[in-house]
Amino acid sequence: xxxxxxxxxxxxLVSGTCFADTGINVTCVDIDKEKIKKLSEGVIPIYEPxxxxxxxxxxxxxxxHFTTSLKESLEHSEAIFxxxxxxxxxxxxxxxxxxxxxxxxxxxxxxxxxxxxTKSTVPIGTAKxxxxxIQDEIEKRGIDMDFDVASNPEFLKEGNAIEDFLKPDRIVxxxxxxxxxxxxxxxxxxxxxxxxxxxxxxxxxxEMTKYAANAMLATKISFMNDVANLCExxxxxxxxxxRGIGSDSRIGNKFIYAGAGYGGSCFPKDVKAIIKTAQLxxxxxxxxxxxxxxxxxxxxxxxxxxxxxxxxxKGKTFAMWGLSxxxxxxxxxxxxxxxxxxxxxxxxxxxxxxxxxxxxxxKHQLGDTVVYGEDQYDVLIDADALILITEWPEFxxxxxxxxxxxxxxxxxxxxxxIYDPEEMKEFGYTYYSIGRPVIK
Length: 440
Ligand code: UDX
Fold this sequence. Notes:
The chain is of the alpha/beta class. The chain folds into 3 domains: 2-201, NAD(P)-binding Rossmann-like Domain (Rossmann fold); 211-297, N-(1-d-carboxylethyl)-l-norvaline Dehydrogenase, domain 2 (Orthogonal Bundle); 299-432, 3-Layer(aba) Sandwich (Rossmann fold), CATH 3.40.50.720. Helices cover 43% and strands 13% of the residues. It has helices at 10-21, 33-40, 51-60, 70-74, 97-109, 126-140, 161-166, 178-188, 203-234, 238-246, 267-280, 286-298, 301-309, 336-346, 359-366, 400-406, 421-426; strands at 2-6, 25-29, 64-67, 79-82, 115-118, 148-151, 171-174, 198-201, 317-321, 350-354, 371-372, 385-388, 411-414, 430-432. The strands form 3 sheets. The chain has a 6-stranded parallel beta sheet, with helices on both faces. The protein has a 6-stranded parallel beta sheet with strand order 11-10-9-12-13-14. The chain has a two-stranded parallel ribbon with strand order 7-8. β10, α15 and β11 (371-372) form a beta-alpha-beta unit. α1 (10-21) packs across α3. The chain starts with a strand and ends in an 8-residue tail after the last strand. The model has no long low-confidence stretch (mean pLDDT 96). The structure holds uridine-5'-diphosphate-xylopyranose. Residues 154-158, 214, 217, 221, 255-257, 259, 262-264, 266-267, 325-326 line the site of uridine-5'-diphosphate-xylopyranose. Uridine-5'-diphosphate-xylopyranose binds next to α9. Belongs to the UDP-glucose/GDP-mannose dehydrogenase family. Its EC number is 1.1.1.22.
């Protein structure tokens, strides 16, 4: 079986490589020549654990190919996945120009039946637009050609993408014909042998599922952050509250960790986009508007605590551990660290930052407004306080003796609640975290 994937970004590259790993012949297409050249040599443009080796293996086995020619990739393909970017437009709605351009090209070059699958996160109604764009081009050619569209949203988490693709909780596929369902079923069968289902449904429901899933997860996080803020006021500990509510199986214990707010390419963008879709349909998603507001404020909560502790913040030096929006990725999109570092430097403070992999990406956003350290201890030299923003494993059990020697003050602002307040007390630290009593 042969398929094509258009767009070698995060979703496209992971999907293509994982499909190839099951023995399917996959051609990945991108307009970026340099990227395609590098990928053909097994050099991948993103940081994702295990992906480089998997790309290399499948390239060597001659079942994963990279090209800039969409036309070429279409030959003998039974399915083509559109996995190009859908950046947020000025008003928060997703920009579909890349998706629809790919659809038009498919219509121009398609020479046999295939399923055209939208894999990028796209607004409800996009598959319909893709279908119309392809049909339009086919008609311009004056020919008759049968094809189907399908919607197959992706639920990958960055940093765990391969595992998520290989062992999904579920696969959601929106289809309009049995023929398309059969092809999609054949493609995904190897991934559902562990008993998790392929959920076939109508196309608008599949498109909606992606937004509803991300919006629900974002809601859980903002809800917990809101509760955490109240915990601080009433003297409760959000970690205990989390354990207390998380053991109720109706609530569940995942995605209820309070922190410095959610970031990344999906939650902020998708929450905005679904709010926009609702507004365009004269409906206000009141809960999600609140989810977004709470998250915007939550990114500033750490700054508020720092300002309260250091009323004379100008000229103070802060060490920052972690820059990426979460561990195991170099992705800096919507990262709380950016908001926090910018706010501190605007107040006249100095920020010395270290991240195990995201420093290059961080430089694109923060430039030379912050100083970048050699390692996690280097940034502690003469620091007035340490701010923990991303819970990378290496930050979890630091060498307190070394810290004591390097830092000016023993003060920690923990934006992810990774340290044990009892231990901080024992080591003589002033310790601020999220939704838990301050240790002084
Ligand atoms: C998310 C979804 O999980 C995934 O299904 C979808 O396809 C894309 O969006 P990702 O953006 O990779 O994946 O990150 P995720 O691991 O879900 O974390 C998102 C953000 O939420 C991070 O900033 C993280 O720090 C934050 N988070 C997560 C919390 O603050 N608390 C939690 O309990 C969980």
